[in-house]
Specification:
heterotrimer; A alpha+beta; B alpha/beta; C mainly alpha; A: alpha+beta; Rossmann fold; OB fold (Dihydrolipoamide Acetyltransferase, E2P); 2 domains; 5-stranded antiparallel sheet; 31% strand; globular; B: alpha/beta; D-Maltodextrin-Binding Protein, domain 2; 4-stranded mixed sheet; 13 strands
């Protein structure tokens, strides 16, 4: 049932971005972005603020126009279309609910604008309201709802659009941490796996890994790497991706030969001999795990280990070769 | 200054806020005391100041007189407040200050129509005991009226003012004498294309309209009695009707319903009209460089029906001492100086204002210098006075409202004048000054 | 405690509002005129009886209302148009925005004198243009049909910037992502005006309406300078009538009665406005 609602009205297909460029006031916001999202696939755009991820979303929606490149949706070039003719739905960071209309009217307005017959409008709205458990709030104004409820209304409005692509711009950023954890699987269940591609913008790597099939990491308007969360974790293409994926951050050790050695905190282990001798600087105990900062001859290291691990002063840390990442010191690229 | 120096005179001394405030208060008090002392000493040595409020044009015209007065009198000084240009705005300013209680002025230059109102309100000082016997005797007869009300002298006129008819000497041999003649000459000149309009006057809903009307009311054999009666009469209807017909016949522009003195003057000055009703000040303006009719203008009395004497509405500005003045003796001294012969002579010679003293009208040298004087004197002989009633402003307002309705064609003259008559009657009865009294 | 905190405000309100009102109410029961030597003489309800039968009061009330409704209506429409224009970004917008405030910054009397000249018949610039086009000049201020429109025109010219600025502030409070969401749902710009802009601007419209109506119903200086209430008292407003009674006729008892009468009418129209607003609110599902 979920899928029938989430599916678009027209023929569905993948979303392709080809060599997208965007420049604002002489500043390069996006440079040569190539991406493809398959029907039902959820792609997360991940990166620090100002990396261009929201701009990509606005270009897909048609709220901004690219300075170069093409956007194809289900095989159709939509680069020059106005937002209203693109059949895209967007959940805004602020949710952008109409503050003067009730929840129900918020949902009905779009269908009215698109000329959906009155009776069907009501049916559709009722269906989505019940699906998202919003029935008892239907006559409330957005200002009378909690953050989570507002997000559901925004989601409901997006579903009613019957889009060929779903766009979500940091939809969780206004919610508290616990609610975010709860909502993530729900959101995935509702949106992903249907017939429309989903593009999800976030700056939170944990959220991206939790919700996306694939993640595209962006920095300074350039695509750094695109792949499944596992791929990004296991073989980050460069230093940017390596530092962005995985918490606590990867340890980088200068090998003195023009390259950096990357080793994730969770891959360090205490050894009897070999490895490097370290001294504990600080320790946070989390129960199942514990996180330590230790001083080594190569610099301070982050180490994460089991909470049961006994810590003594004469500590040596080592790692397995398979967990080593190497990066070129100049280019930052994996080598 | 003093307090600031005291309060901050202890650098490095860390006073708590309360202590600092106390020091500040002490300093402030000391400073104030010193200032008061200094001010008081200065005050004691200063001459008595007589404050005088005048409309701007008179403040300008008398500036020289005031300056020489101040030079000649050691212990007495005139301070002139230059009021607004418009007559009624000056009154508003004066009344606002009078209503607040302590008027800041000792003397006020007053329009003739204010006198009764100000006297009844108790704002003026009766001048009878301050001036010699028969203080108005040196004035020409037409200038005496309007100063004595209910047996007291309230005002001494400084300049006379009267409604006059200006005519174009280049377009006709002699000015019209009757309303019919004025219409006939106008129509002829307009037909001939010599002028665009026949006659321009003041038709705006304001005091000037009452003045225009009074002259015609007299001209048609009626009168606006001193009591305020006389508006609901056939003569009043005739006068109103004649004014309306001027517009209907195209002798006066429809815009005359919004004309005050400047608009009429502008039109006549541009050579657009054959006749204009205005005050003496216009003569000087018409001889100026911007005038297209300089040297082609004659001045005469307003037209009147055969057998009726022509009338000139009395304007005139005079000085009154305000009841709240703290220096009445000095104020009277200033009043006498500014209304005296030397002062009036200068106002005639330099500014073209009409004098009120017989001696000046009879001075051949002055007449030679100002050929208009005999005409002004003549007009003063047949001057028409507006009612000397404390409620005059309201009486005039009632009249203006009805007249304006006639002029714009909203009301029939007979009905409008009946309403004006009834309105004034009601007001007079309510005020206890009606005819049955 | 809360009462204690509110006390200064209440006292101030009492001092600036209630006290003069009570003073007027007392004065309206007195004959205090030039004929009584400006001393108050109790006359009961005589002033109020006179007010009810005073055709001029009612004529002025109707004229004041007509002026207020027409000019405020025009100001809202024009103000909205200008606000929408200034809300768009275009080259020179800042300059135009500053310039458009000029009429509002000008003192009313100066502005009224300016209009008196502009509308002058036959020497004003408007009639100059009319005549050069071969059209007859119009006696704007000398005709009972045109003069009130001239007053409306001058008032609209002066206060539209105020309304525009207020509405512009309102427009800037509307988040742009609402319009983006609206566009994504297939809404067109003009539909956005009706569906989003106007409803969300409503509180600002209401503030402008209340401010401007209160000002327009009390209009005095503009009329005093531009027309003096004429011709045939066709532009006389209640405030001007109250002023004439006090400052010209020195009839303070009746002037106070006129002011109170005006206040009652103002209150009634404010009440009507609030009721209309509630119905407007109620009409929406």
């Amino acid at each position: 049932m979920i899928n029938t609602i989430a599916s678009g009205a027209g023929p569905t297909g993948d979303l392709r971005l080809e060599a997208l460029n965007r420049r604002i006031a002489g500043r390069q916001i996006l440079a040569g972005i190539d991406l493809a999202v398959a029907p039902g696939e959820c792609l997360a755009l991940l990166g620090p603020s100002g990396c261009g991820k929201t701009t990509i979303l606005r270009l897909i929606a048609g709220l901004e126009r690219p300075d170069g490149g093409r956007i194809l949706l289900a095989g159709r070039d939509i680069t020059a279309l106005s937002p209203g003719r693109r059949q895209v739905a967007m959940v805004f960071q602020s949710y952008a609910l109409y503050p003067h209309l009730s929840v129900e009217r918020n949902l009905l307005l779009g269908m009215e604008l698109r000329g959906v017959p009155r009776q069907r409008r009501q049916q559709e709205a009722d269906r989505v309201l019940s699906m998202l458990q919003l029935e008892s709030f239907r006559s409330r104004r957005p200002s009378e709802l909690s953050g989570g409820q507002r997000q559901r209304v925004a989601l409901a409005r997006a579903l009613l659009r019957r889009p060929q692509v779903f766009l979500l711009d940091e939809p969780m950023s206004n919610l508290d941490a616990q609610l975010r954890e709860e909502l993530r699987p729900q959101l995935r269940a509702i949106l992903c796996g249907g017939e429309a591609p989903v593009v999800y913008v976030t700056h939170d790597q944990k959220e991206a890994m939790g919700i996306a099939d694939r993640i595209a990491v962006l920095q300074n308007g350039r695509l750094q790497q695109c792949g499944t969360p596992q791929e990004l974790y296991a073989s980050p293409a460069n230093l940017v991706v390596a530092s962005f994926i995985g918490r606590p951050q990867i340890n980088l050790l200068d090998r003195g030969d023009g390259s950096l050695l990357g080793i994730r905190p969770e891959h360090l282990q205490a050894v009897e001999e070999g490895g490097v001798a370290v001294r504990v600087l600080s320790r946070e105990w989390h129960g199942a795990s514990q996180q330590l900062t230790v001083a080594s001859p190569h610099g301070d290291l982050r180490w994460i280990t089991s909470g049961a691990e006994p810590i003594n002063d004469q500590l040596r840390l080592g790692w397995q070769l398979q967990h080593e990442h190497r990066f070129d010191l100049d280019t930052g690229l994996r080598c | 200054m003093q307090s600031a120096a005291l309060g901050g005179s202890e650098p490095g001394c860390d006073l708590r806020p309360a202590a600092r405030q106390a020091w500040f208060a002490v300093g402030l008090g000391l400073g104030l005391a010193l200032a008061l002392l200094w001010g008081g000493l200065a005050w004691a040595g200063r001459p008595t100041t007589v404050r005088l409020l005048m409309p701007a044009p008179f403040a300008d015209a008398t500036a020289e007189l005031v300056e020489s007065f101040n030079r000649e009198h050691r212990g007495l000084r005139i301070a002139v407040t230059r009021g607004p240009f418009e007559t009624e705005s000056v009154s508003d300013l004066a009344i606002s200050s009078l209503l607040l209680g302590d008027s800041p002025y000792d003397l006020l230059l007053m329009d003739v129509t204010w006198t009764a109102k100000y006297a009844a309100a108790g704002w003026l000082l009766p001048l009878d005991d301050w001036l010699g016997p028969e203080p108005l005797a040196p004035l020409v007869a037409g200038a005496r009226a309007g100063n004595i009300i209910d047996g007291n002298l309230w005002r001494v006129p400084m300049v006379a003012d009267m409604g006059l008819m200006y005519w174009r000497t280049d377009l006709m041999a002699a000015p019209p004498r009757t309303p019919t003649e004025l219409v006939a000459i106008s129509e002829r000149l307009q037909r001939q294309g010599k002028v665009r309009w026949g006659y321009v006057w003041q038709g705006r809903q304001y005091e000037g309209l009452s003045c225009v009307f009074l002259e015609m009311l007299r001209g048609f054999g009626g009168n606006w009695e001193s009591s305020g009666e006389g508006l609901g009469t056939p003569a009043a209807t005739k006068a109103a009707s004649w004014l309306r017909q001027l517009i209907v016949k195209g002798i006066s522009p429809a815009a005359v319903a919004n004309f005050a003195e400047p608009e009429a003057l502008q039109s006549f000055e541009a050579g657009e009209a054959a006749f204009m009703r205005n005050w003496p000040y216009a003569w000087q303006e018409l001889q100026g460089p911007s005038s297209r009719v300089a040297g082609k203008v004659g001045v005469t009395m307003m037209v009147a029906e055969v057998g009726e004497p022509p009338a000139a509405t009395q304007g005139s500005w005079g000085l009154s001492v305000l009841a709240g003045s703290r220096h009445p003796a000095e104020a009277v001294q200033v009043l006498q100086a500014l209304t005296g012969e030397a002062s009036q002579r200068l106002l005639v010679q330099r500014w073209g204002y009409s004098p009120t003293l017989t001696a000046l009208f009879d001075d051949p040298a002055l007449v030679a210098e100002r050929p208009l004087l005999p005409i002004l004197q003549n007009a003063l002989e047949s001057v028409a006075l507006r009612p000397l009633n404390p409620g005059y402003a309201q009486l005039s307002d009632i009249l203006q409202r009805q007249l304006s309705s006639v002029i714009t064609g909203e009301l029939e003259p007979a009905l409008a004048m009946e309403r004006a008559g009834r309105g004034s009657q009601l007001l007079l009865e309510a005020s206890g000054r009606g005819s049955e009294q | 405690m809360s009462l204690l905190l509110m006390a200064p405000a209440l006292l101030l309100l009492l001092a600036v509002f209630l006290w003069p009102m009570l003073d007027y109410a007392w004065l309206s029961l007195q004959a205090q005129t030039v004929f009584t030597g400006l001393k108050p003489v109790p006359v009961g309800l005589a002033n109020w009886e006179r007010l009810l039968g005073d055709g001029r009061f009612w004529q002025d009330a109707a004229q004041t209302l007509r002026f207020a409704v027409v000019s405020v209506g025009l100001e809202l429409l024009l103000g909205l148009a200008i606000a929408l224009l200034l809300h768009q970004s275009w080259r020179g917008r800042g300059l135009v925005r500053s310039l458009s405030l000029l009429p509002w910054a000008l003192p009313t009397t100066v502005m009224a004198l300016g209009w008196r000249w502009i509308l002058n018949d036959p020497n004003g610039p408007i009639n100059g243009v009319m005549q050069s086009l071969g059209l007859p000049s119009l006696p704007f201020l000398a005709s009972t049909q045109l003069a009130w429109l001239a007053v409306v025109l001058a008032d609209t010219w002066k206060t539209t910037p105020f309304v525009a600025l207020l509405l512009l502030a309102g427009l800037q409070m509307i988040p742009t992502d609402l319009y983006e969401a609206f566009a994504l749902e297939g809404g067109r710009p003009w539909q956005g005006l009706r569906r989003i802009t106007l409803p969300l601007l409503r509180p600002y419209v209401l503030i402008a309406l209340i401010f401007r109506l209160a000002q327009a119903l009390g209009v005095f200086d503009l009329v005093a300078v531009l027309t003096g209430g004429g011709p045939a008292s066709s532009t006389e407003t209640l405030a001007l009538y109250a002023y004439l009674n006090a400052m010209r006729f020195l009839d303070f008892g009746y002037s106070a009665t006129v002011m109170l009468g005006m206040f009652v009418l103002l209150l009634a129209s404010a009440l009507l406005l609030v009721l209309a607003q509630q119905r407007w609110r109620g009409a929406r599902p």
